Amino acid sequence: MPENTAPDDTATPDGMFLYGVVNASPDSLNTDSVVDGPEQAVARATRLLAEGANGLDVGGQGSTDAATVVPWEAEWERLREVLPALAALRVPMSVDTWRPEVLRRALQSGATVINAADGMQSEAMWQVATEFDVPIVVPFLSGPNPRAMEMVRRDPVEAIVEFFDERLRDADRYGLRDRCVLDPGTGFAPSNWPWEERYLYQKQVYGNLAAMRVFGLPLYIALPWKETAQHDELLEIVIRNRPEFGRVHYPAKVRAFERRLAAE
After folding, report:
1. In whole angstroms, how far apart are CA 154 and each of 139, 212, 215?
2. Would you say residue 87 has pLDDT above 50?
3. How far apart are CA 196 and CA 183, in angstroms?
4. Angstrom distances, CA of residue 101 to CA of 62, 75, 76, 140, 201
């Protein structure tokens, strides 16, 4: 993964590498992350970096069930001016998309990491990835597949490991396994479950991140950000399990948790 080149005075030496979220889509559930145009994007990015982020994660299409799906041309139009403006900050920058047309243009415009919102389940995404020497974040996606959802309910960790095994077999066909970073996909999943069930699901996954080390690849977590005791508990579990990378809306809070836990 890229080195930490961000002006980060608050990160602990052994803390996670944090990608601060900049959403060029209006559909984000976290409205603080939404920007409209390059000036707002740079202002938010500057604040994220000052608060402890090391890089940026930028998206132009919401990936929640509530998001309105727009054509790829509209997604790209949201990113077209934002990405070069953020690239001028000279920090690692991932692009969150599932569309190869957007991905290729984003990487040509300064993005340095692929955050594959489709879980790298399409050949076209792998083909674009071969054209650029950049890391690839591969999120777990159970999707509507009944078998996958049955596995998730029975043993989410087993389901996630099986998914990663399949995706890494795909990566091997393109010679890209060593560039992959594994994301258990807990940011919104399972999206159609009540929160109490999702909380228990995420607690089980976060408490068993070590099982995903079987592949010898770095881990990337979409960090809990809501202000509740349960979300704080989940955040603490993640930090104690020491993943290499996190996707974050409020980096100062994560850095404060890291410092507190390191002092124990």
Report:
1. 20, 17, 22
2. yes
3. 22
4. 16, 10, 8, 22, 34
Rounded to whole angstroms, how far apart are CA atoms 264 and 259? 9
Span 17-263: which CATH code? 3.20.20.20
Tokens of 112: 């340095």
Which residue has tokens 């994007």?
41
Picking from 107, 88, 87, the residue whose alpha carbon sits closest to that of residue 97 is 107
Examine the pLDDT at 149 and tell me if it is beyond 50: yes
Which band of pLDDT confidence, cut at 50, 70 and 90, is reported for residue 2?
Answer: very low
Q: pLDDT digits over 222-257, tens only?
A: 999 999 999 999 999 999 999 999 999 999 999 999
Residue 94 near residue 57, CB atoms below 8 Å:
yes
**What pLDDT sits at residue 1?**
44
23-81 tens-digit pLDDT: 999 988 889 999 999 999 999 999 999 999 999 999 999 776 677 888 999 999 999 99
> Residue by residue, what is the 3-state secondary structure of the chain?
CCCCCCCCCCCCCCCCEEEEEEECCCCCCCHHHECCCHHHHHHHHHHHHHCCCCEEEEECCCCCCCCCCCCHHHHHHHHHCHHHHHHCCCCCEEEEECCHHHHHHHHHCCCCEEEECCCCCCHHHHHHHCCCCCCEEEECCCCCCHHHHHHHHHCHHHHHHHHHHHHHHHHHHHCCHHHEEEECCCCCCCCCCCHHHHHHHHHHHHCCHHHHHHHCCCEEEECCCCCCHHHHHHHHHHHHCCCCEEEECCHHHHHHHHHHHHHC
